[in-house]
Amino acid sequence: MSASRSRHHLTIADKNRLRRHHQQHPELTQEQLREWAYATFGQWVARSTVGHIVRAPEEVCANPEATRFQSGRYPDMEQELYTLIVARATQLGVDLKRMDNSGGVLSDSELWTKANEILKRTRGSQESVSVAWVHRFKKRHGLHRSQLKRAAAEAATVQTVAEQTIEEQATVGDNRIATDAETTEPARKRAASVTATATSNRSHFVSSDDILLLTYVLAIKPWTFPYVMDGWQQVTEKLRGEESFRLDKTAGACQARLNLLLHHLKAGNMTALRKSGTEEEFDRKGALVAEVAKQMEEYENAQKGKDNPSVVAVDSVSYARQDTAATNTALPDLAQERERMAQRRLELMERKMERELAAQKRHSEEQ
């Protein structure tokens, strides 16, 4: 259910392939086309999106791996520059999606120089592009470092699935008298591979992620640090070192996730804790959340005992001493106040950075 709520984007090549499949099988419904797209591309697409795709004409783009057509300010120049890049990749015998690591063939300075040479030849000396334009060009044509890295990972996954399929077919050919359980095993493996591919780019926590988070929280105990966010930063670094943890979360996001789990536990909301996981993961997660809540409460009580020592009432104690004890108890803990202020500033800074990144992303998409 959660996978269907995530936003997925098909490339222009995938959209054209979906259109051709619809033309070959016009009797298929949008739901059937949606299931075919998931089986083929490993991504769930909304039914309304499927309808928009099949009704639109086939798209022609210099970069078929882009998710949408973006012409830019100089479409003719970009077409010629991209064709030049493809020709050079073919000449060198290098995969276009791996050229970023092949001796600087796609360096920003070279792209900038070539682009201005084409503009000068086609439009005169008054036209030119900046270095920032090179960044937008690479984003539009799927040549940015992050896009190349993601494409390489997806290609490796597809190759692994293909190799598994070939091995399974060979095994089935050699063992034609296999039982029904043995023949269904390859299909189960392929389904698991497709599921893993579909969830590799997820951005939400599932039970396995929560278990890893809670395990490191119990090991590091960030609430015991003089500055709490220093402890959460250590938790985040440990999580990023885990291969099974595929989320790119900040220290503030991990802290917010723990607070949400503690809130569900305190409210008795077992349905929310049970989401996205097996029964065993739910039991394990529940035990870890309860242990974290227990240790945090014990630490908080211990700190309160240090900050507010109990005063034994004795008849011989004078009123002046009682007034002095009351005054000392009422003094605020300046260290805790500074910590809260520092944590608040850090949270505000993270929110500001997230808003700026979102604005930059929207700006680059508009360009």
UniProtKB/TrEMBL annotation:
The keyword DNA-binding applies. Keywords: DNA-binding. The keyword Transcription does not apply. Residues 1-26, 172-195 are annotated as: Disordered. Pfam families: HTH_ABP1_N, HTH_Tnp_Tc5. Residues 65-147 form the HTH CENPB-type domain. Residues 1-10 have a biased composition (Basic residues). This is HTH CENPB-type domain-containing protein. InterPro entries: HTH_ABP1_N (IPR041188), HTH_CenpB_DNA-bd_dom (IPR006600). PROSITE patterns: HTH_CENPB (PS51253). GO terms for molecular function: DNA binding. It comes from Phytophthora cactorum.
